[in-house]
Amino acid sequence: MTRAFGNRPPLRPSELLIPTPAGLYCPPADVYIDPVRPVARALITHGHSDHARAGHGAVLATRETLAIMALRYGEAFAGSRQVAAPGGTTRIGEVDFRFVPAGHVLGSAQIVVEHKGLRIVVSGDYKRERDPTCAPFEPVVCDVFITEATFGLPVFRHPPASAETAKLLDSVRLFPERTHIVGAYSLGKAQRLMALIREAGYERPLFIHGAVEKITELYQAEGIPLGDVRKIEPGERKAEGRKALAGEIVICPPSAIQDLWSRRFPDPVTAFASGWMRVRARARQKGVELPLIISDHADWDDLQETIREVQAGEIWITHGEAEALAHWCGTAGLKGMPLHLVGYGDEGEAEPEGKPAEVAP
Ligand SMILES: [Zn+2]
Ligand SMILES: [Zn+2]
Asked: Tens of pLDDT along 26-45?
């Protein structure tokens, strides 16, 4: 006997969203959220490459996320695309999907999945700290909250980003002959750092590595003021041209701080903006002289605060320190469940290997 979905009793959470090797699958809508393999229909939370992949049939995402995907993968990144209006609801099958800001990077959204009164929130990656480059996280009360746990250990408590930015600017004042080379993920962190530097009153030009250029232009085109940002010209790769960058701030992808590219600058100070810089051994291992603890992920306190705020009885954990966060959920009287999803880890920020053996004060 076949019946229309409309006559079926309400689904259980585990029937509305199912972890599969391709990602979270929603059977009554036949869509995947942040699939890690090519699928017919994908809903995408944000533009980081572990969540937003090329090759899907159809993609539903915020306008900014679609623009980021087109920039990175080319206009043909998917068979078709559809803009998720902020706060608006898109019905697919019997399921309502709503995109709500996640505060992670430009265009990042949580996806609220609702079916006959059952509400699951897929938060994607998120943070609670203020970020001048994207809309703030909005908590949505729900039955099941699906969270990341990148920094889901008590050692991870992020200091205010403004204080970390002040450390960078103090060092620039202290060493006016040295070039400060700051590693920052090219989507989100680099632009947030630039905005923080501007908020701190620094008005000199900021120099960027070519890999950061296109995304930075997109942020500026979206109306985010980053001041005078200049790409490092090929001539400045030569010793003579680089002398001109003594005393300046250069922002580059994290991989560039360790390679030859950075060593050609005059007496460089290497810095790295990441939540992982809380771990001293990590900074040392990467040859980072000036660690800046600036993260686009919720820290231990903010994970807990968010879980309390959304009032969900069940917490499903996608990636990161899933077991530790699930254990905390148990102590708080909540059901915490690691999903063991494979394929997530933010362009370097969520590094699966290495445990925080040694933590900075
Ligand atoms: Zn991300
Ligand atoms: Zn991620």
From this structure: 999 999 999 999 999 999 99
